[in-house]
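Reviewer 2 asked us to include a model.

Predict the structure of this chain.
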Amino acid sequence: MNIFGAVAGGLGDTLKNILRHTDEGKHYARILFAGQFLFNTKVTLVKFSTLVLYKRLFITDRLHQTCNLMFCLVGAWFLACVFGQMFSSKPISASWEHPGHRIGRSVINYPVFLISMAAINSALDLVTVCLPLPVISKLHMNTKRKWAVGGVFMLGGL
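Predicted model (structure tokens):
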């Protein structure tokens, strides 16, 4: 989607030059606006699928409760991202009608919003990857194998 938007909106050109051609700039901004929602949906579904995998693999009550809490936190992050991006400009169409001119049309401090959502996303990723480690440490196998199994799960963080 972003590749299509970049090609249709001025592949490799500067934002200043893209904005000179208002039709191309608006087209690119519309695709970028829609792409944000697709990205957040994709990230959320990957986290949900990982949590479902953990619930199926490990049958401890504590891990199940933690996974349920993570479902709520990831869902809340998703809703905050969607509504924050959707209503970041007033009117909503200002996000694509005036690309690059968010100042004065933004309802929120958009750069701070993006940084905070990225930080929360990274923290949720870290917690999600580390969830099975306490269960793995209690398995009845030698330490070398525990490290190997834990390493396989930690590869998800790459």
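Helices lie at 2-10, 15-20, 22-57, 61-86, 94-97, 110-130, 133-137, 143-154. The two ends are 23 Å apart (CA to CA). We have added this to the supplementary material.
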